[in-house]
Structures are given as C-alpha cells and as structure tokens.
Amino acid sequence: MFERLRGETCFQCACLGNNTHLHSLVSDTHMYTYTYETPPFSRMHRLVEKRGMEATFFDGSKHEELVAALRPGATRILWIESPTNPDWQVIDIEAAAKAAHEAGALLAVDCTASPPCTTMALRLGADVVFHSATKYLNGHSDLTAGVLSVREKGPLWEELVFVRTLQGTILGAFEAWLLVRGLRTLFLRFERASENAMAIAKRFQDHPAVERVMYPGLPSHPLHDVARKQMTGGFGGMLSMTIKGGEAAARAVACATRVFHPATSLGGVESLIEHRKSVEGPYSVVEPHLIRLSVGIENVADLIGDLEQALAAIPAE
Questions:
Q1: Predicted confidence band at 8 (pLDDT cuts at 50, 70, 90)?
Q2: Are 168 and 211 in contact (CB under 8 A)?
Q3: pLDDT by residue (tens digit) across 84-95?
Q4: Using CA atoms, how far apart are residues 48 and 44, in angstroms rounded to an integer?
Q5: Are 108 and 33 a contacting pair, CB within 8 Å?
Q6: Which residues neighbour 53 within 8 Å (Cβ) at sequence distance 6 or greater?
Q7: CA distance 58 to 49
Q8: Rounded to whole angstroms, what are the CA distances from 205 to 12, 122, 236, 242, 315?
Q9: Do the Cβ atoms of 37 and 31 come closer than 8 Å?
C-alpha cells in the first residue's frame, strides 16, 4: 500500500484478517501479546484455548517485560499493537522486532491506530502488519474490511492466502472500491485528525474535571520520544481521558456531548466518544472512569466547546 511490502491481502472484516493470521500458526505455538485482551471473550484467548496454543500477556509500556518473556526456540510470534487501545501506550516497534528475531520469532503489529501515513512498521522490522481497514484506511464508517501485509513472501504468506480462500473471506468488489476511495484522502484526514486531537489533549490535560489525558503526542506522555520516532506523520486522532468523579461522571460526559457521537468505532471523519468499560463489558480491565475519543475532522473549536459543556454537565456529588 505505502510500504515496501512483498505481499498484501484484504478480508471482509478485520476480525477475519486477524484470525486468518493466527490460524496459520501450528498448534504448539507460543505467542506473546499485549495485556488489553480481556478473558474469556477476547478472540486471542478463545483461539489460544481452541488451538491448544500458549500465550503470554505483557505490559506493552515495559520493553523489559517483552524481552524477559520471549522464549528462544519456543515463541513463534510476538503480537503487538502500537499505540495500544484504549490507554495509547506506545511500543517501540524496532526494538520489539530485534527482540523477536533474536528469539527466533516473527513480529506482527496491529497498526490500526497508526496507519502507514504515519508508521511504516514493515520498514521498522515487523514481519506482518494488520490493519482494521474499517477504521482510518477507509475513514468514512461505511465499510468493514481488514488488511494483512507481509515483509517477505514465503510459507506464512502462502498459508495466509490459502486459509483466506478456504474461509471465503475475500473482500467484495464494491467494498474494495470504497476502500480505494477512502485511501485517496487518508493523508489529509489523518493530518487533520492529528491536529484536532493534539489541540484537545493540550486543552484538557489541565482541566479541573479531568484526572489524566492519554495521548502519545503530548510531551508529558511517558513514551512520547518513541512515538515521535515512529509516528512521523502525526500522532493520530485517538485519545482517552480519565474523569474525576468516577464511573458515573465518565458515563455522564459520554452521554452529554452533541458534536461527538456516542459510538464504538474509530478513525472516521466524524468524532466519536464512548465510556470504554461499558462497551467491553463486565470482564473489562479498563479503568471505570475512562472515556475514549476518536477525534475527526470537524472544526476543533466546536469539538472543544462540546467537551467543555459535557464536562460542565457532570452532576454534583
């Protein structure tokens, strides 16, 4: 698409692309993956259980944990996401690739929140890159699709294509046209969303009703230097806030916006807001007072004003 890749294939939806990739692994595989996978309903936990694989989960903000848990000769794939949803920690892709390869493993990166207009994961050493094309690549919230890209063709690539064919998950012609249409404006959309998100993050990081703003573009972000190194086209439109007053206050904010739409997707031209724990359900490990924002391309003053009035509407304790 934008990177110097050797193979790329599209799927009817992101989940199918993800599952096809993981189904291509042998049953005795040891996977090492990030912590925001919530049992027992996550795809990763279910696939590991059904396929007889072993998975180790780690804190993506701590590179030393990643290195320590890789088992040379046993770990076959390191699966990461950067930035991680919904706390937007950043994993150093180049360092992760080096650690994975030294252990004899492949590195797979979910770059849904950092599309190739900002992060070239294959050039940083990743072997496989996954995108939920439903999100930034399409950008208009009218398509479900997934994309897998590989740095080198070989047995893994052949197996991915074979499994996709058996599953019948090839992207339809109309959906492919919609995706191409979206890609034509990806750079413009991502640039505007990044600018808007940065302005919102700066405005609310010291707001009296906000406990914390999580956005890798802020210099105060603990991994900002890593983000700046590998997100060269902007830090994206995804950010989260924890709201003072607990879960009830966070829910109130998510229900009080008028420009931000309450919805779970991300990466579209429209701005979305959600109370994340409510979306994930009772097994969620997300902080109960966290709200997630997908910042779109609207006038940033309108977006800031909408959040201001929503925060002002928090009921008094």
A1: low
A2: no
A3: 999 999 999 999
A4: 6
A5: no
A6: 25, 27, 28, 29, 30, 31, 47
A7: 18
A8: 38, 33, 17, 10, 21
A9: no
Return d(Cα 136, Cα 144) in angstroms, integer.
Answer: 11
Q: How many residues does the chain have?
A: 317
With the CA atoms of 93, 95, 99 and 105 taken in that order, what torsion angle do they form, in degrees rounded to the nearest 10?
20
**H helices present in 84-185, as ranges:** 93-102, 155-167, 173-183
CA–CA separation, 42 and 317 (whole Å): 35
Pairing of strands 75-81, 54-58: unpaired
Phi and psi angles of residue 109, each rounded to the nearest 5 degrees, phi first: -125, 125
Segment (H or E) for 15: helix 14-23
Q: 221: which 2 tokens?
A: 């972000």
CA-CA distance, 312 to 39, in Å (whole number)? 36
For residues 48 and 24, the answer to whether their CB atoms sit within 8 Å is no
Angle between the N-to-C axes of helices 14-23 and 43-51, in degrees from 0 to 180, rounded to the nearest 10: 30
Q: What is the pTM of this model?
A: 0.89
For residue 18, what pLDDT band results from cuts at 50, 70 and 90? Answer: low
Q: Which of 303, 277, 282 is nearest to 292 (CA)?
A: 277
Using CA atoms in the order 6, 9, 13, 17, what is the torsion angle rounded to 10 degrees? Answer: -60
**Which 3 state secondary structure label does DSSP give 237?**
coil
pLDDT digits (tens, 9 = 90+) for 157-186: 888 888 888 888 888 899 999 999 999 999
